[in-house]
Design a protein that fits this description.
Helix content: over 70%
Shape: globular
Low-confidence stretches: none
Order of helices and strands: HHHH
Number of helices: 4
Largest sheet: none
Number of strands: 0
Strand content: under 5%
Length: about 90
């Protein structure tokens, strides 16, 4: 996951968000998807950003009704759009 480019991370995140949104229709998927999404988030983004995003992703998938929240895409935006502009 560390070798993925910025664009590959975006596409991977979009797919993960779609899986998360699909689990809204099939709540039993969340038992597997919630911890897996947290693990993927931690592997995708290193450091504190990845850890915090992993916790948010887990909670978002585990709590019923929050599956619409695109945590992977929003984390990508934070890392590559907002965080980059903060350092300038």
């Amino acid at each position: 996951m560390e070798t993925l480019s910025k664009n590959q991370k975006l596409w991977f995140g979009l797919i993960c968000d779609l899986i998360g949104m699909a689990s809204y229709a099939f709540p039993l998927i969340d038992f597997v998807w919630a911890p897996l999404s947290a693990y993927l988030m931690i592997k995708l983004y290193k450091g504190n950003v990845g850890k915090l995003a992993g916790v948010v992703s887990f909670l978002e998938e585990a709590i019923p009704g929050l599956d619409f929240f695109p945590s992977f895409t929003l984390t990508w935006c934070y890392v590559y759009l907002f965080k980059r502009s903060e350092s300038n």
